[in-house]
Design goal:
F-box domain-containing protein, 9 helices, alpha/beta
Length: 254
């Protein structure tokens, strides 16, 4: 009962309770490692997880933080060089995580969730958009987002919490830039992951060939959750829908 209360409240430093005794250590580590939310900067520490702790991990969410931008860029589509740098950050993060997970032996099911966004995305036009994941562990972030409704930023179309001006089309397009995952080195094979999740909070469009590269290296994959956005420009929508159809055939081997 005491352990259950400690793990549910998660006060600062709650994980240090694991040092009380072996029983507490097992119970708290099981809760602490059940779901890991990682940024690229966390991967070195993540790589040092001992084998016993690896067995406790059931869900990994990799959130890749892209370049921040100022108001000078918030109304523009991304330049080619800017997109290349963002794609490089995504490639490096995914490749490094796959290299680490390639050393994990098959075992209990492991869900891998991939996400990428810029911290600046919600600072300008899209203050009411949620760019994090909607998994079970983000209740605190959701409540913070929901209560911060008094935005007053006339420059970006917000007056006393109300959006009175729509974002320019170029700003919208910037959210949906493509992701190119053509790796310089072959992506390592991962035998532990059984579920891949890419939620709708990822606005960026993943090139079909890039996703196939990832799927090809998940040898024990049993489930795929993919929630892509549809192109909002009609001309691009038709072309993209055709590519998606072919891409779904490629994935499922029809």
């Amino acid at each position: 009962m005491i352990l259950e209360a400690i793990t549910q409240q998660k006060h600062p430093g709650w994980a240090s309770s694991a040092s009380v005794c072996k029983e507490w250590q097992f119970f708290i580590e099981k809760r602490n490692f059940h779901q890991l939310r990682l940024q690229v900067s966390c991967l070195d520490g993540f790589e040092r997880l001992i084998i016993r702790q690896r067995e406790l991990v059931q869900h990994i969410w990799l959130d890749i933080e892209l370049q921040k931008y100022t108001c000078r860029r918030c109304q523009e589509t991304e330049s080619e060089s800017w997109t290349r740098r963002n794609n490089s950050m995504i490639r490096n993060g995914v490749w490094k995580l796959f290299r680490i997970l390639s050393t994990w032996k098959p075992g209990n099911g492991l869900a891998l969730e991939l996400h990428a966004h810029s911290p600046s995305d919600s600072d300008h036009w899209f203050k009411n958009h949620y760019f994090a994941s909607d998994d079970e562990g983000n209740e605190d972030e959701t409540s913070i987002h929901e209560t911060d409704r008094n935005w007053h930023d006339p420059r970006h179309g917000w007056i006393h919490g109300q959006q009175v001006t729509a974002p320019p089309p170029s700003a919208i397009l910037a959210l949906f830039e493509s992701i190119d995952l053509r790796f310089q080195e072959e992506l390592p094979q991962v035998d532990r992951v059984t579920c891949l999740i890419i939620r709708r909070q990822l606005r960026r469009w993943i090139d079909p060939n890039s996703l196939l590269l990832i799927l090809d290296k998940l040898s024990c994959l049993e489930q795929l959750t993919y929630e892509p956005w549809r192109q909002w420009r009609s001309g691009w929508r038709v072309l993209n829908d055709k590519r998606k159809c072919q891409y779904h055939f490629d994935i499922f081997g029809y």
